[in-house]
């Protein structure tokens, strides 16, 4: 094991004076993409003027053999910008750019799950999907142990931590606050945040966002979280069951509505969706995140990995209909199955496909 090093890995106070230097009219675009192991990568590009629309952004490329996305003898992978956001780190006209990845033959990269999802949402645009995702995650110290937990030991059992306040109940609220503000600055539709049941575990919600934009915004919010935590010398993990035993896992509850479910009497459309979801349990679980069977034990507010169930206000079922939705007879449903490391493009895509039908791509 490497020797414990100082936790001070950078000096943000010194950085401040350089961040405010004028850029001579140039703009920095941080191109962000998803790599070959469900992680994020980025690199910076100087542009000659302010970007007004996504078409202003040039295509770019990277070495896919260094990210597990391409073989060494055909390593160029192309970056195609799909959305951009104000950069909360560099400020000014600088931007964060979400990209899709393509191979030299024009086919999407094997890890480009946005490509198929975008086709599904285009085909089913009349459904007017909205998604709101609850992203849970865990903060780890430099040794990979949950932040603030006793070294070589465990904190007191779960109970006081969920939405907790006070020393020894919550850890790293500074990171959570910084991430919240940075997302708002970036114009991410972050809708809230809360401390979770396991200490050092947190949640934030993104949405409701229409169609493919949920995936774009959620991935960018994850990038911002990693980037903020890096400045604090803290690691973010999206592992669905970071600590085995009597500690809650981490999920990505996916709240779903369509024009029909939101309309008067929309409960009927929700029930029809439940009927469809119940026939494709295995296919959904296949794209709802890796290691999810470790989390979906039927305990700790989860359902069975193998069997689809749904119910009003039931946090032990695959899908929960919020009590208020049942009372209003319209609204949305909450798919509680996705793991925290699930790909939002894949999981919103398969939900749309299951409810409205496959699309020939
Ligand atoms: P929970 O009670 O499960 O913890 P949260 O408040 O964390 O619920 O998250 C619920 C999320 O549902 C909200 O953040 C929002 O994004 C999403 N949501 C609300 N209304 C809709 C809707 N009509 N369609 C899709 N998602 C919705
Ligand atoms: Mn180089
Ligand atoms: Mn929640
Ligand atoms: Mn939660
Ligand atoms: Mn939830």
Automatic annotation (TrEMBL):
Its EC number is 6.3.1.2. It is an enzyme of class 6 (ligase). InterPro entries: Gln_synt_N (IPR008147), Gln_synt_N_sf (IPR036651), Gln_synth/guanido_kin_cat_dom (IPR014746), Gln_synth_cat_dom (IPR008146), Gln_synth_gly_rich_site (IPR027303), Gln_synth_N_conserv_site (IPR027302), Glutamine_Synthetase (IPR050292). It comes from the Eukaryota. GO terms for molecular function: ATP binding; glutamine synthetase activity. Residues 108-361 form the GS catalytic domain. The keyword Nucleotide-binding applies. It catalyses: L-glutamate + NH4(+) + ATP = L-glutamine + ADP + phosphate + H(+). The keyword ATP-binding applies. Residues 27-106 form the GS beta-grasp domain. One of its GO terms (biological process) is glutamine biosynthetic process. Homooctamer. Belongs to the glutamine synthetase family. This is Glutamine synthetase. It comes from Ampelomyces quisqualis.
């Amino acid at each position: 094991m490497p020797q414990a090093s100082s936790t001070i890995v950078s000096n943000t106070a010194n950085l401040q004076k350089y961040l405010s230097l004028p850029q001579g009219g140039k703009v920095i675009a941080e191109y962000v993409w998803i790599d070959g192991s469900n992680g994020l990568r980025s690199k910076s590009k100087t542009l000659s003027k302010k970007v007004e629309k996504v078409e202003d952004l040039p295509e770019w490329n990277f070495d896919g053999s260094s990210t597990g996305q391409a073989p060494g003898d055909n390593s160029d992978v192309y970056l195609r910008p799909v959305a951009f956001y104000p950069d909360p780190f560099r400020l000014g006209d600088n931007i964060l750019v979400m990209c899709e990845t393509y191979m030299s033959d024009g086919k999407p990269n094997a890890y480009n799950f946005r490509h198929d999802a975008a086709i599904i949402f285009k085909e089913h645009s009349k459904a007017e999907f909205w998604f709101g995702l609850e992203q849970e995650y865990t903060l780890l110290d430099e040794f990979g142990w949950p932040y603030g937990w006793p070294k070589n030991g465990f904190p007191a059992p779960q109970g006081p931590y969920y939405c907790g306040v006070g020393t020894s109940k919550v850890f790293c609220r500074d990171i959570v606050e910084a991430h919240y503000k940075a997302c708002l600055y970036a114009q991410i539709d972050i809708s809230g945040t809360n401390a979770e049941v396991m200490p050092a575990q947190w949640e934030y919600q993104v949405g409701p966002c229409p169609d493919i934009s949920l995936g774009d915004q959620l991935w960018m919010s994850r990038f911002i979280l990693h980037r903020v935590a890096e400045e604090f010398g803290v690691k973010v993990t999206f592992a669905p069951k970071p600590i085995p035993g009597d500690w809650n896992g981490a999920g990505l509850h996916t709240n779903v509505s369509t024009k029909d479910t939101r309309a008067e009497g929309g409960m009927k459309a929700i029930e029809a969706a439940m009927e469809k979801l119940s026939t494709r349990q295995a296919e959904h679980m296949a794209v709802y995140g890796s290691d999810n069977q470790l989390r979906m034990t039927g305990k700790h507010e989860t359902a069975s990995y193998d069997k689809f169930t749904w119910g009003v206000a039931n946090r032990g079922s695959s899908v929960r209909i919020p009590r208020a939705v049942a009372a209003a007879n319209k609204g949305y449903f909450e798919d509680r199955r996705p793991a925290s490391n699930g790909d939002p493009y894949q999981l919103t895509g398969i939900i749309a496909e299951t409810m409205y039908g496959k699309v020939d791509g």
